[in-house]
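Lab notebook: predicted structure, single chain.

Context: the supervisor wants predicted structures on file for every construct in the current expression panel, including those that have not yet been purified. This is the next one on the list. No modifications to the sequence; it matches the entry in the shared construct table.
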Amino acid sequence: MNVAALLDACRAGGLTIATAESCTGGMVAAALTDPPGASDVFLWGAVTYSNAAKRAQLGVSQVALVEHGAVSETVARGMAAGARDRSGASLAVAITGIAGPGGSAFKPEGRVCFAVADAHGIRAETVEFGALGRDAVRRAARDHALELLQAAAGP
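Prediction complete. Output recorded below exactly as produced.
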């Protein structure tokens, strides 16, 4: 993923970005701020690892967390909406998942839920990366989130 090209696409479209990350622990925000001059596009990043942080920092509802669990498209949508609303960014991406080790029969290791919020609404999806190991799942999730932002930003 060419992050500089993503930032350039955002500049061309007058777009700004915010992130809300759980299992990636800020890896998307770090990638977005690696290129010099990113501050005109990247506004804000939240690492909300705990459910309490998801509620307090992003406004994710307790009901969503209890009924669907932190690793769900419902919670990813709430995270993305909260990041966009609270930051004032044009685009927000959210990530919540099980990087491993571990997981369960219902929520296996490598399951990551993503959401992107923009002026057109919120789109969410789940990707099953599989039990690749913690580092590989986190890197794959980071890269997928950047690709989602690129798609939302346009060419």
